[in-house]
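in:
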């Protein structure tokens, strides 16, 4: 199924504007609809506080919140216009727990684009990429905060280790990968042709070739900084349009034990990263 419906998480921060820049590029390429989503907590008061607040004050606070949401929508539409997009644009601003709502909203779009990280001083607008990847059931593209528009190079990188999350990410990214002229499948620490990891890497090259994708296998030795840094170092040298990788996590302690490689790449990404779980 072709990519025709992209969503972007937007809260008027610099990182969300970066996500819009890439989203607009992708919408042009795929002739897709772009939907901006701002999830936020509703105005509410503790019971012991609410009894002391007049109805007029409550109404005033609710109007201020509505005005803030309207300003964010206007900022989104302005950002889209400034990036020269004249295709279909929609907006949604549901109220509730931001991560839960955004994960739920992502299920009704082909892809969700988010900024690399959010403003730390605005806790009610914090969006955690790891929760979105684990809960949405759809691929997420995390966009570096300093992402600048440039023509797509037709080059992509897939971080491959033969795992279920890696296979899920590859499958979710196929509509994008099939349009690329060059695809590098990168493994780390699998240079020994006799290892099962290396054998599985060769299998994925065969699989991609059957889809008409010219993929090449690149085995990297892990740097002292770790696997995540090794993958990003390769991306820094080759400048792909996107890095595709599986996201890893722990069912119980997701925030604390979210995979080290995935977390490092999320926090230090130098290219857009498509993740799935």
């Amino acid at each position: 199924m072709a990519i025709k419906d992209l969503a972007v998480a937007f809260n008027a921060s610099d990182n969300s504007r970066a996500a819009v820049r890439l989203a607009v590029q992708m919408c042009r390429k795929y002739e897709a609809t772009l939907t901006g989503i701002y999830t936020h907590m509703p105005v509410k008061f503790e019971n012991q506080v609410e009894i002391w607040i007049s109805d007029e004050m409550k109404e005033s606070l609710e109007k201020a919140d509505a005005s803030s949401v309207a300003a964010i929508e206007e900022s989104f539409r302005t950002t889209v216009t400034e990036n020269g997009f004249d295709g279909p644009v929609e907006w949604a601003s549901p109220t509730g727990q931001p991560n839960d709502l955004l994960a739920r909203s992502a299920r009704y779009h082909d892809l969700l684009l988010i900024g690399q990280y959010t403003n730390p001083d605005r806790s009610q607008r914090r969006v955690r990429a790891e929760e979105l990847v684990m809960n949405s059931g759809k691929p997420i593209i995390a966009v570096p905060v300093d992402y600048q528009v440039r023509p797509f190079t037709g080059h992509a990188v897939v971080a491959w280790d033969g795992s279920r999350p890696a296979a899920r990410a590859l499958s979710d990214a196929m509509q994008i990968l099939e349009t690329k002229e060059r695809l590098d499948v990168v493994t780390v620490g699998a240079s020994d042709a006799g290892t099962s990891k290396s054998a599985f890497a060769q299998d994925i090259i065969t699989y991609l070739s059957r889809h008409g994708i010219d993929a090449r296998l690149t085995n990297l030795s892990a740097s002292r900084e770790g696997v995540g840094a090794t993958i990003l170092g390769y991306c820094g040298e080759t400048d792909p349009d996107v890095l595709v990788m599986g996201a890893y996590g722990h069912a119980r302690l997701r925030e604390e034990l979210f995979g080290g490689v995935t977390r490092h790449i999320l926090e230090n990404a130098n290219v857009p990263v498509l993740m799935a779980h």
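note: Residues 2 and 175 are 6 Å apart (CA to CA).
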